[in-house]
Structures
1.
Amino acid sequence: AGPRAPGPQAAPSRAPCKPAVFVPVDRTPQVQEARLKLPILAEEQVVMEAINENPVVIICGETGSGKTTQVPQFLYEAGYASSGGTIGITEPRRVAAVSVSQRVAKEMNLSHRVVSYQIRYEGNVTDETQIKFMTDGVLLKEIQKDFLLSKYNVIIIDEAHERSVYTDILIGLLSRIVPLRQKKGLPLKLIIMSATLRVEDFTDNARLFSVKPPVVQVDARQFPVTVHFNKKTPLDDYSGECFRKVCKIHRMLPAGGILVFLTGQVEVHSLCRRLRKAFPYQKKSTAGGEDDKEDSVEEIRKFKKSRKRRKVLTLPKIDLNNYSVVPVDEGDEDRDIDSDDDAATGSDLDLDLGDGDSGEDEKSDLSLPLYVLPLYSLLAPEKQAKVFRAPPPGTRLCVVATNVAETSLTIPGIKYVVDCGRAKRRFYDRITGVSSFRVTWISQASADQRAGRAGRTEPGHCYRLYSSAVFMDFEKFSAPEITRRPVEDLILQMKSLNIEKVINFPFPTPPPTEALAAAEELLIALGALKEPPMTGRLKQQLAAKLSCPISALGRVMATFPVAPRYAKMLALSRQHECLPYTITIVSAMTVRELFEELDRPAGSEEEAAQLKGRRARFLQMQKVWAGQGPMQKLGDLMVMLVNSVCADAGLYVDPKMKPPTEAQVTYLRQIVLAGLGDHVARRVQAEELLDDKWKNAYKTALLEDPVFIHPSSVLFKELPEFVVYQEIVETTKLYMKGVSAVEPEWIPALLPPYCHFGKPLEEPSPSYCPGTGRVRCHRPSVFYRVGWQLPAVEV
Ligand code: ADP
Ligand code: MG
């Protein structure tokens, strides 16, 4: 079919419905040859016709069929970036955005100035950028600044099957932006790419697209994969089972790469070490380092217990109405759920290969070294890139990966897949905010994706370390993330886009109404939304609550690329020159890499020493936010944090900042309290001890059960009466993490939305304040959920 005329609404100036120009690309013969093998190349015409003729197109195709790397090139060649507009591609994972942009630049023989990427804290985008890979969070921030996304001609939402929250939100927003651009005569193309066929949430959803978008199906040349189920399903030592299976494959089966799916970074490293030991290839030992002892926290100063008398708050305190706008360019949430830490697996070097359930009996080849590579989201890009290169001659490639290898990245030459059947997922308690990482069974769709990795280049085998009965019990598809997590940051972003009635938003899958209500409530309590007038009947009130407009503070908060609680801390921090310190604290609390980095097993002694130093500095920082002492030199860690967050905020902060003054430390603790208001806990007093399980326990406003200060906290032994915590994690007990001591006087002063205030005290209220000429009266408060009597405050 020949090219059709552009739609009648196309404006002549820019972004025609179908560009007329063909933009040649100068590829090397090798690249051209490799491309021709990709299934999507055979469908180029079908893909481009669908795109030319429809505002929204869905492309489905097996992982490795060439969607991510080739579709942007098709569009580029068809002239979609030739009229000054950009082709934008969003990825849910940073690792994919970076790696694919590099790959595409190389394939097209274009510089990174033209094919660029942008992720939360870095990027190489220039004025010349025509193809831009970015995380979905980055695009969301851009929509906030320019709702029509006028600099783009095409937006590709990649990996839509992952159903990350941002993907869902973007698709909802784009379903509105596309018709608006159409009306303006500057049509925007929306392409949704998915690895699975389950796209009904997008296609058969009248809230989303009034015209059902066409689905282009790319048939991958998939070679048959023989699936072998285990007879038994190992309940805990699946990592050991992976080890035995890899050993067996390597010893007995013909050449071909092995890909192992585990759940987290620590497991990946541990299996890599075992395999390298069993089949040495690298001379350099990579063992050791991980059992570095925790740095001791002995010299903790005694916590000042000034619990003598409750008196009216006279301490200097932060001003809740003093917040200021800090410009922020972009940002995205860190959602690398696959890479979170877990406990190291057992290390017994069990080489018993007795059970022969795979039924293979080919000749053994003991001479071949195994070339073992780890792969997970937070691995340095240079190390990630190794998996795409051919293994050294005479070795067999073995990649030990988290589920990042499931659909985001395709590793060449894989013939054997070993699938532990599990993945790590974050679970949230919607009411209390308690979050935990749990290893759970994957879905059937994921298991099939994993198996598919074995059949890219020739017939392959997939070893599932679980029985077929267990597989039949897997859910068919994982539930979209939006139905599983707290949505307050999204609600805030949406409100700042003036989407007030969040309940009417065209979500591909709407979150539960109670999650929306909980988010709205938290945002009201933080002061980010304007509270509705408390009138009308209950039902009307609820409806009103779900459509509260954003406040001035909320707008400031929405500019920060962090969750609302931390955004509030940052927004309050321009006073008393606290910002650099708050940035440090917030970074430490929210930048997951920091903890990853600190907990990572070291690869060498030198690295171990470096990590030890960093841990020590980190502990010092922890003390600051626990109110334990001045910040000392934080060295390179600090520089890194200051550079990232402050640079984003367009601020200059001297990395060699002075330690905060005593007063600043107090303000900082108040700022932390202001952001984590509902996370206050009070130590159970001796006279209240019900039984032994309440020893050293705290009572929170949200939970019935006793909670404890986590042993890693500098306050573990101090046990201050009131604390505020960042989160509760459930291991053997409920532990508070990110704990900071607070003075009871601060609570009514800084958290009025959470308090019930009593009548003014007789003495000395009301009284005349000679300094300001104002009448002051003092009111005591009750933290209403738990009935804590709190000291009086000035009003
Ligand atoms: P899809 O998006 O459909 O899963 P991709 O476009 O990601 O497919 O991959 C197409 C091919 O490009 C695969 O064979 C993959 O191995 C290769 N590829 C992708 N990224 C890289 C890279 N960074 N280096 C080398 N090859 C790569
Ligand atoms: Mg892809």
2.
Amino acid sequence: ALQLKGRDFLGLVDYSPEEIRYLLDLAIEIKRKHKAGEAYQPLKGKSLGMIFEKSSTRTRVSFEVGMYQLGGQALFLSRNDIQMGRGETILDTAQVMSRYLDGMILRTFGHRNVVELARGATIPVINALSDQSHPCQALADYQTALEHKGKLEGLKVAYIGDGNNVLHSLMMGAAKLGMHFASASPEGYDPDERSVKSSIEAAAETGGSVRILRDAREAIEGADIVYTDVWASMGFEEEQKEREKAFKNYQVNEALVSHAKQDYLFMHCLPAHRGEEVTEGVIDGKNSVIFDEAENRLHAQKAIMAAIM
Ligand code: CP
Ligand code: NVA
């Protein structure tokens, strides 16, 4: 049997293919129940703390509403409004929070902060985006792909653009799910090497594959899923101008997607810089499933919380 209760959810690397498939199936079932108006409240009386060091629309709203729908309540804790913003340590914060709460999420810059919070806490901790990864996003994305394609194994995922947190989790998810992942980033913006290495190792166990390329056209050839994200993530705003130059051959536009499969899915974690990393024609086109992805953040995270809390 799967042992998920009490676990942290810091990255897909810590979850087996079987566990990820279980969470995807649970997310789909939770979504079905929700649409049918059937109550599903396994977390009655429980509380989730949500610490944010950066902005958020989807993550904040979907966790807060999701926790409410599961029968519990959520507290939004902006880093600057709690004592952490004045230097109370993460370890002390973790121990205090553990005395009140049943689970915590953290959106932070340094991934080590998430690891440290989890180390100090006696309750499950969920990574709500760090510089290294965004596992909740990838879970919702693969739920979306599964709903649209009916399967995941063997599909080709092409990521075009910045080698960032979103890429890392998408790549690890593809590897764990037996998919073929290819990315293309400009020089200097490749994904993190350790992340690539551990994804390649994961893919070796599932029959999936991981390729890190320079050429966008080569990466997108025959893709079932075409994914991109902003060129300047949160914390990199001052590099916007130089990144626009570096990424100019990495826009997902009509010419580029003509090399993907005809029935490809266009995906983006959002928020998007329309007209920059993706043209309006592609992001609003018939292949785009961006709002299904956004919606599935709710269902996928309810599955995570229900499973581990
Ligand atoms: N995709 C995502 O995490 O969006 P937010 O930054 O709005 O939470
Ligand atoms: N890569 C983006 C994702 C936002 C959801 C960022 O980190 O800002």
